[in-house]
Write a structure and sequence with these properties.
- A two-stranded antiparallel sheet has the order 1-2.
- The chain has a single domain, classed as Transmembrane di-heme cytochromes, Chain C (Fumarate Reductase Cytochrome B subunit).
- It is elongated, with a radius of gyration of 19 Å.
- By secondary structure, the chain is mostly helical.
Length: 184
């Protein structure tokens, strides 16, 4: 068995990029899990509490996504290891779609909540303005899109993780080390 390639320090993402990647990953997995669980609960104080947590996670994901995008625009990523052109194109397309969905999923959720007449109060302290006016017909039209987009995001996350594992265990090209937190 070949040992994984050791990447030079300059081929890693910055500590800020790595921290934002993993914070966003944990927040997305948590928000998706809470969203999937709460949607089937009967109306209760627990369901309402979970809806608020889900909204807080969504706003946090939106904020982290903005910080991550701004960081990324100002900091070039490390070069990709050698790979077939189709894989590089697929990776770049997947990353672009992930970034798009990092914004679309929480914004559509916020729009649904506003249209349904439910305010978004971040961590129960900071009331956010309504994203759209309250309108039941609009809420009914928006609601399914939040779930569809969230499932698309989940599918892309699974694809992203599968590709990273392929690079780690099949290609053994050290690609995963670019985003792995540094070991001290």
């Amino acid at each position: 068995m070949q040992s994984p390639a050791v990447l030079p320090l300059t081929s890693r993402y910055s500590r800020v990029a790595i921290a934002l990647h993993w914070l966003l990953a944990v927040a997305i997995v948590g928000a998706f899990g809470v969203g999937a669980y709460m949607s089937d609960l009967p109306m209760s104080p627990t369901r309402l509490k979970l809806y608020n947590w889900h909204k807080w996670a969504g706003v946090t994901i939106l904020a982290l996504s903005m910080v991550r995008l701004l960081w990324r625009l100002g900091h070039r990523p490390p070069p990709d290891p050698p790979m077939p052109a189709w894989q590089a194109r697929a990776a770049h397309a997947t990353h672009a779609a992930l970034y798009l969905l990092f914004f679309a999923v929480p914004l559509v959720g916020w729009a649904y909540s506003s249209a349904a007449g439910f305010p978004v109060v971040w961590f129960g302290v900071l009331p956010l303005p309504d994203f759209v006016p309250a309108d039941k017909a609009l809420a009914d039209a928006i609601k399914p899109w939040h779930g569809v987009l969230a499932k698309m995001l989940a599918a892309l996350v699974v694809l992203h993780v599968a590709a990273a594992l392929k690079h780690q265990f099949i290609d053994r090209d050290g690609l995963i080390d670019r985003m792995r937190p540094a070991r001290r």
